[in-house]
Amino acid sequence: MAAPLPRPPVALSIAGSDPSGGAGVQADLKTFSALGAYGTCVITALTAQSTRGVTHVHEVPVDVVRAQVETLVADVRIDVVKVGMLASAALVETVDALLASGPLAATPVVLDPVMVSTSGSRLLSPDAVDAVRALLPRADVITPNVPEAGVLLDEPPAESAAELPEQAAALRALGARRVLLKGGHLDGTESVDVWHDERGTSELRGPRIATTATHGTGCTLSSAVAALRPRHDDWLPAVREARGWLTEALRHGESLDVGSGAGPVHHFHEQPRWRT
Ligand SMILES: Nc1ncnc2c1ncn2[C@@H]1O[C@H](COP(=O)(O)OP(=O)(O)O)[C@@H](O)[C@H]1O
Ligand SMILES: Cc1ncc(COP(=O)(O)O)c(N)n1
What we know:
Elements: E1 10-17, H1 24-34, E2 38-50, E3 53-59, H2 62-73, E4 80-83, H3 89-100, E5 109-111, H4 129-135, E6 141-142, H5 146-153, H6 164-173, E7 179-181, E8 190-197, E9 200-207, H7 217-228, H8 235-251
Parallel strand pairs: 1-2, 1-4, 4-5, 5-6
Antiparallel strand pairs: 2-3, 7-8, 8-9
Helix pairs in contact: 1-7, 2-3, 3-4, 5-6, 7-8
Bound molecules: adenosine-5'-diphosphate and (4-amino-2-methylpyrimidin-5-yl)methyl dihydrogen phosphate.
């Protein structure tokens, strides 16, 4: 008889649905699977969306989100949580309470404070920003992009990578324990992200891939960090590995040829090239 396989980490995505499969819980589940985690998900909002953009958002009632989480965690031991689109202040507050009590209170959390899609549609109500600020201390890591960092800090968005370290430190001062401030929206031959934790700041540089397939990069990166965290003894090595894997996913996105707009990145299963 074959030897039993080792138990994979069990990851939970609490996020919105993207029917085109490039972002949201669909991207998170593919990423978990590609990186060796068992994926579970709780859906906060249904979007009508393609690679061309978002045409509709339907928020799931808060008691249904609460029931999804409570039913799941009463049965399944979750090793790591990724939180994505939360749509409204009521959903942000509901998820905050769910992360504060019960088995999830002791579970590592990666929070991607999703606000606007790559195609420019609002995925978070403007009146929910204060609730998201209040949620920041609940996360072990937050992963804002440049526009999201600007909104959270109530400052203009950074215009160059040189401004990222100060903004990352300011986000930590707002209560986030660790910050991965993503510089994908900036220009330059490299894509520069900044990591900030209690030990200080690190610049994480990678090649900027010339591609139209950027739909879901933020969702994919945050779920990759969550999937890989249980395989490392600290956050930064998991972040570095996740970025390396995402670079390959971006490099091969166009070969998927999905949709006519900003296509999805390639959520690889096949090969471990990013490790070399
Ligand atoms: N064209 C690109 N080439 C390489 N890395 C990229 C590119 N675009 C984004 N990234 C990386 O993808 C991740 C997501 O970044 P970003 O696009 O800023 O977030 P979001 O999808 O939330 O807007 C970051 O690690 C960023 O450096
Ligand atoms: C349901 C859902 N959640 C998040 C995003 C953000 O996607 P991106 O990573 O491209 O900014 C999205 N487009 N749809």
